[in-house]
């Protein structure tokens, strides 16, 4: 394990994460904020470590090895076990007020795919699920519209989304990313 590493957040901003290697030799970036799951680094990811933080001046203490392992084990457990139907439906109800147009449901769909709660490429099944759970939502998803968003980084898990390879740009990308991350946190 090495110390905290700055990780690009937005242009000119960085977040600090702990680079950690688990018992199986997998590499992770672990956030100190427990609200966010650790990020499993894969060979397909383009990650640049631009430095090592030797001192952080703030109230939050440094993550210990045991804290990193606990966070990783929680994340792995979530990845292996799809959430129960009731949890999925409650999460959809919680996120629905944030969805401002039908295409933003793609962020919810992708988060559910990441957690294995819906089948990948089952856009019409997902649209039917949302229509059943929040039938009065003013912007219900349409499967054919969601299919159009399944390009570039949006075909990948949310943790791999890249604003430079996404089908939407700027504030629109940030809205999709915010919805997807909040949905993952609900699950």
Q: Please, could you describe this protein's structure?
A:
By secondary structure, this protein is α+β, with helices and mostly antiparallel strands. It is built from six helices and four strands; from the N terminus they run E-E-E-E-H-H-H-H-H-H. It has helices at residues 65-80, 85-95, 105-114, 123-133, 143-149, 170-186; strands at residues 4-8, 14-21, 27-31, 39-40. A hairpin with a 7-residue loop joins strand 3 (27-31) and strand 4. The two termini are 29 Å apart.
Question: Can you summarize this structure?
Answer:
By secondary structure, this protein is of the alpha+beta class. It has 6 helices and 4 strands. The protein has 2 domains: about 5-80, no CATH class; about 85-185, no CATH class.
The end-to-end distance, rounded to whole angstroms, is 29 Å
- Shape by Cα distribution: globular
Query: Helicity, in percent?
Result: 25-40%
Question: Strand fraction band?
Answer: 5-15%
Using the CA coordinates, give the radius of gyration: 17 Å
Report the structural category: alpha+beta
Give the total of domains: 2
* Element-by-element helix/strand order: EEEEHHHHHH
User: What is the tally of beta strands?
Assistant: 4
Number of helices: 6
Q: Mean pLDDT, nearest integer?
A: 84
| pLDDT < 50 stretches | none
The main sheet orders its strands as 1-2-3-4
The major beta sheet can be summarized as: 4 strands, antiparallel
């Amino acid at each position: 394990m090495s110390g905290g590493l700055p990780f690009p957040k937005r242009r000119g901003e960085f977040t600090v994460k702990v680079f950690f290697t688990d018992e199986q030799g997998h590499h992770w970036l672990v956030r100190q904020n427990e609200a966010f799951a650790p990020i499993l680094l894969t060979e397909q990811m383009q990650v640049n470590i631009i430095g090592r933080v030797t001192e952080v001046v703030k109230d939050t203490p440094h993550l210990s090895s045991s804290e990193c392992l606990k966070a990783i084990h929680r994340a792995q457990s979530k990845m292996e076990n799809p959430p129960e139907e009731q949890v999925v439906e409650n999460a959809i109800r919680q996120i629905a007020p944030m969805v401002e147009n039908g295409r933003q449901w793609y962020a919810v769909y992708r988060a559910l795919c990441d957690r294995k709660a819906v089948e990948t490429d089952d856009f019409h099944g997902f649209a039917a699920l949302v229509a059943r759970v929040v039938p009065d939502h003013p912007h219900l998803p349409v499967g054919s519209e969601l299919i159009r968003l399944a390009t570039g980084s949006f075909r990948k898990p949310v943790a791999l989304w890249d604003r430079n390879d996404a089908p939407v740009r700027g504030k629109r990308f940030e809205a999709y990313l915010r919805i997807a991350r909040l949905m993952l946190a609900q699950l």
